[in-house]
Design goal:
The chain is of the alpha/beta class. The chain is 43% helix and 17% strand. Strands 1-2-3-4-5-6-7-8 form an eight-stranded parallel barrel, surrounded by eight helices. α8 (213-221) links the parallel β7 and β8. It is globular, with a radius of gyration of 17 Å. SN-glycerol-1-phosphate (1GP) is lined by residues 27, 179, 181-184, 207-210, 228-232.
Length: 252
């Protein structure tokens, strides 16, 4: 048995968090971002101050596309690229790390442990850094909730999410992700984020529907350590830059 070590990407995130700097990550969905522009958008994202790029989407099933997409991003930026998988076809040898995640409120064995058991060998073979994370999906008419067969958590009842988040921590997951869903009409309410953040010792990640500086600052004030935005980088670069500033605590 070898001693388990925390990998480079996780250390990079944790060093920021432990020094009191909230982290901003940008989600690129290969189905939304044109492959020809992926590298250029990633470069602009890095210039805007994001700390890393996540690659994923609820309805991507081509490993080929993921590979090509990640390669073109990696050639353009020096910040880490982290896979945000929706199933085993998202595993790419070209990324720096993968969120090794379980959709804890899924009703489907596949999303709880099935995909993970199938993908684990590949992660090992590729030498990918696996970052264990518990993933929780909140209510809403979103692709991720439908594809993941989630029994969505109530937005206004943080106590329910807090139970799951604590279970994630005790299961050894090192991050917990509160997901409203990409393009969600509303982000997760700050009191719900706060309730979870106060219940666990692991960093809380929030994402979904964050499109304003106010929303981003509210997430951080409520205790989120990592804020993820996706849609806004594709739609409004200036708003995206301001959101990153807001996450970092600067003037928008
Ligand atoms: C990441 O799904 C989100 O958790 C991204 O959501 O596209 O709404 O920013 P948006």
């Amino acid at each position: 048995m070898r001693h388990l070590r925390v990998g480079k990407t996780e250390r990079y995130l944790m060093e920021k968090i432990e020094s009191g700097e909230p982290v901003h990550l940008t989600l690129f969905d290969p189905e939304e971002v044109d492959l020809d522009f992926a590298g250029a958008i990633a470069r602009r994202s890095e210039e805007a101050g994001t700390d890393g790029i996540m690659v994923g989407g609820s309805t991507i099933f081509s490993q080929n596309l993921i590979d090509t997409f990640i390669k073109s991003i990696k050639e353009s930026v020096s910040i880490p690229v982290i896979i945000f998988p929706n199933n085993i076809t998202s595993i790419s040898r070209y990324a720096d790390a993968i969120w090794f995640m379980s959709l804890l409120n899924s009703t489907d064995h596949y999303y709880l442990i099935g995909a993970q058991s199938q993908g684990a060998v590949l992660v090992k073979q590729y030498g990918l850094e696996a970052i264990p994370m518990g993933y929780l999906i909140f209510g809403g008419d979103t692709a991720v909730a439908a594809m993941g067969r989630a029994l969505p958590l109530p937005l206004e009842h943080g106590e329910v999410a807090a139970c799951y988040a604590l279970a994630a921590q005790y299961l050894g997951m090192r991050f917990v992700y509160l997901e409203a869903g990409s393009g969600a009409r509303t982000h997760i309410p700050p009191p719900t984020v706060r309730r979870v953040a106060e219940s666990v010792d692991i960093p809380v990640i929030v994402g979904g529907g964050i499109r304003s500086t106010e929303a981003a600052s509210d997430m951080v004030r409520a205790g989120a350590k990592i804020v993820v935005t996706g849609t806004v980088v594709e739609r409004d670069y200036e708003a995206y830059r301001r959101i990153i500033r807001a996450v970092k605590g600067g003037e928008p």
